[in-house]
Design a protein that fits this description.
seven-stranded mixed β-sheet; 12 strands; alpha/beta; three-stranded antiparallel β-sheet
């Protein structure tokens, strides 16, 4: 376990100059306390959150600096290696967070904050303490969430139903391929149900046979329907295109999480995957979900106060008010703040509330090495999805990695699915 870090980074001399940060003008003094928040939002997406931190600062009297990056894992690992972690980090991978908890970097939530750790976004983690006793703790809280298991289209577009073409973009920097892992996860969930999905995501189901292999084959059928290959340009195409893949005019259906609504107007709406993809069983109202979860890496009273603020109703309302209508965050209580909603947001909330069961994103809950191998396998598969030998080889490699991680005890999360949290 790492040594305890300083409670705050205090600027002892000079002025702290930070772009898009939350510091008042003037020089720091010994009484000034600045908390660093590391998060995933950049390129304008971060502004509503930065504005929200300003509101929190007015309530707490603490100062916050937001550092946004698309390379969260690489950035945080580097900071941990140099013993300069953020006070709070907001991440989307439960498997990665579990690794930080096991290493002693992410800190267990105190009783006053643990109540905000709600499933399926914040499972309790079982770890051995210094005395060798196994204990369960919560280590992170969800601050915003997204609904997956949905397909976006323009309902008035006849081609979407009569002659569908699938949008597909895999490029996403160091995590390229994750939209494909979402496809495999969702097809497995919709075809085989939450129990099988959870067994696979937690390391108890083989990759190279049975339901997992069938999910890959089902995806291949969609990609190659009508003799085409929807994946041929996907490797070089951003997961969101220049401004939404459906706006390119090259496709009519997009399998993507609820965050993508920021690119579309009221003419683009989501529907359950099971209602759009042919050959799936009767809709069971089980949805895959993802989330942005906050964890404390440099513990202090101010850091725990910030965690409480990030999950409060007041902060959620501030965040919703600061965001553009189509970019308003969705929160774990199935709300998006007060006021009128766009048609896309309203439909997402309707589907959320109708769900019988929610299952956290499988690859995001896997050990990071398996998650990365899964993403790379998707990219290789898309180069020639009709090649059975290629698929068989990729699945054997993934199965070997699963067994390796299982033997190492790296699957720290054993429960990903559950009913809706109380509103």
């Amino acid at each position: 376990m790492r040594t305890t870090r300083p409670l705050f980074r205090v600027a002892l001399a000079g002025c702290l100059l930070v772009v898009a940060a939350l510091v008042s003008t003037g020089c720091s003094t010994e009484q000034d306390r600045t908390l660093v928040v590391l998060g995933p939002w950049t390129d304008g997406e971060e502004q509503p959150f930065v504005d929200t931190l300003k509101k929190i600062s007015e309530r707490t009297g603490d100062t916050y600096v937001y550092e946004g990056t698309r390379s969260l894992r690489e950035t945080l690992v580097s900071q941990l290696r140099t013993d300069t972690p953020p006070d709070v980090a907001i991440l989307n991978g439960q498997g990665e967070l579990a690794e930080y908890a096991r290493d002693g970097d992410a800190r267990p939530l105190p009783e006053g904050v643990a109540g905000a750790a709600i499933g399926p976004w914040s499972p309790r983690i079982t770890l051995r303490d210094e005395d060798g006793e196994q204990r369960q703790h919560s280590y992170w809280v969800p601050v915003r969430v997204d609904l997956k298991s949905i397909v976006w289209s323009r309902p008035d577009d006849g081609d979407a139903a009569g002659n569908p073409t699938w949008c597909l973009g895999m490029a996403s920097g160091a995590t390229s391929g994750w939209p494909g892992t979402d496809w495999i996860e969702d097809l497995l969930l919709q075809r085989y149900g939450p129990a099988v999905y959870e067994r696979w995501a937690t390391g108890d189901l083989e990759w190279d046979d049975g339901p997992v292999k069938e999910a890959w084959r089902s995806w291949r059928t969609l990609l190659t329907a009508g003799g085409g290959n929807a994946g041929k340009d996907a490797l070089a195409t951003s997961f969101q295109g220049r401004d939404g893949l459906l706006n390119s005019g090259d496709c009519t259906l997009e399998h993507q999480g609820s965050f993508i609504r920021r690119h579309y107007g009221d003419d683009v709406l989501p529907a359950p995957t099971s209602a759009v993809v042919p050959g799936l069983p009767t809709p069971q109202k089980a949805y895959e979900v993802s989330g942005d979860m906050a964890a404390v890496f440099t513990p202090s009273d101010a850091a725990w106060t910030l965690m409480s603020q990030l999950t409060s109703r007041e902060t959620r309302d501030d965040w919703a008010a600061a965001a553009k209508p189509a970019e308003r965050p969705i929160f774990p209580d199935r709300t998006a703040g007060p006021g009128a909603l766009t048609a896309g947001t309203a439909k997402v909330l309707e589907l959320f509330r109708e769900a019988d069961e929610l299952c956290f994103d499988a690859s995001d809950a896997m050990p990071s090495t398996l998650r990365g191998a899964f993403q790379r396998a998707v990219l290789e598969f898309l180069q020639n999805p009709r090649d059975d030998k290629l698929l068989d080889g990729l699945l054997r490699q993934l199965e070997a990695e699963r067994r390796l991680q299982q033997e190492a005890g790296a699957f720290a999360i054993d429960h990903l699915c559950g009913g809706l949290p109380d509103g």
